[in-house]
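Render this sequence as a predicted structure.
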Amino acid sequence: MARACVGVLVAVGLSLPMAGIAKEKEPQRLSPSSPWNVHYADDSCRFGRSFGEGDQRIMFSAARYDDGDDLRISFYGKSLKKNVDGELRVRIHPHDHVKKLMFYPATGSNDLPALVLTPSVRLYDTEEADKRRTDAFAADGSNYQSPPVTPEQEAAITGWELSGKFMPHVVLETGSMGAVMATVRQCTDQLLGEWGLDVARHKSLSARAQPITSPASWMTNDDYPRHLAERGVRGIVNFRLMIDADGGVTACHIQQSTRPAEFDEAACKGLMLRAKFKPALDADGQPMPSFYRNSVRFMM
């Protein structure tokens, strides 16, 4: 029977020692071939840059859907493999911490192969924080709240090292990401204001909205649209729930989806019915309106 589950995509990949990056020849270093481009989208802040030239050119694309530190990352390029699921080893220089992250295949403009990382990525995390997040998710589907990524940590970045069966071993020489991330923060502040939230008050939350029940219990097999299940159609739906000061869910918004639209409708219907929360708390410990984000994956 088809199975739907919530939160699978927030699980963090395994942490690896430095030996986890392939030890063959030195990675190819790709210099920037475009400036950073930041796009203020309707429900996200997107930014990207190209590295290298010709057939070696790889495009880095990222999206942030709220004021947190999680990024949805994709890579596009002729040198990437098509139509295969797999895993990618990622090291954000100058840190030694290596992540082993799952991806699914996609196709970008001009039929370019793409690797879309399924877990979200933070620009800085310790191995201990990664383990706590993985353990929390395995226990009850909840999210471990890592310490915020600081502007100083963003500014210290020098590059992204990527390795795996489905792409060449490369270093994207990003240089400091301090300036582009400062622009992204301005964008996310604007997003929260458009959602009707108090941006200044939200910046000093003492607690974010927290699920009362496990997110894994919010969707059931019966929520999988039957005609899509019978055809083996899979889908991924990234959602945002608006939470009032009493912890009630007031709205469900689809931020990104692989479609078809029936998956979006099924996700919001199940979430609005079953998701329960403790409200967010401001700096004085008073309940306030906020939001909660996660993903539903419909899979066979």
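Summary. The longest strand covers residues 98-107. The chain has two domains: 11-194, 199-299.
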